[in-house]
């Protein structure tokens, strides 16, 4: 039996246009960024109260650098990135 005997019965690819099934996005109201004028420059960056910043930083969780390193390595080992980068695309 030839290798391509079932080719006419099996679909290799399929393209479906989902546009008729997608509802249009309702325009959501957007809040304009508040601009501050610092030294004659308009910017969304503004000075904040020093005490508010210190209080916010005090509430953050400090992570030991060794723990952070182990977490980053654990995430990086979930995917074999070296295999993706080590192979070149083959064109057939």
Topology overview:
Blueprint lengths: L35 E3 L2 E3 L6 H10 L5 H13 L3 H6 L6
Antiparallel strand pairs: 1-2
Order of helical and strand elements:
EEHHH
By DSSP (H or I, 4+ residues per run), the number of helices equals: 3
Q: In terms of structural class, how would the helical and strand content be classed?
A: mainly alpha
Question: Can you give the mean pLDDT?
Answer: 78
| Rg, nearest Å | 28 Å
Biggest β-sheet: strands ordered side by side in the sheet: 1-2
Written description of the protein model:
The chain has 92 residues and is mainly alpha-helical. The protein has three helices and two strands; from the N terminus they run ββααα. Strands 1-2 form a two-stranded antiparallel ribbon.
Quick recap:
The chain has 92 residues and is mostly helical. Helices cover 32% and strands 7% of the residues. The C terminus is likely disordered.
Name some characteristics of this structure.
disordered C terminus; two-stranded antiparallel ribbon; mainly alpha; 92 residues; 2 strands; single chain; flat
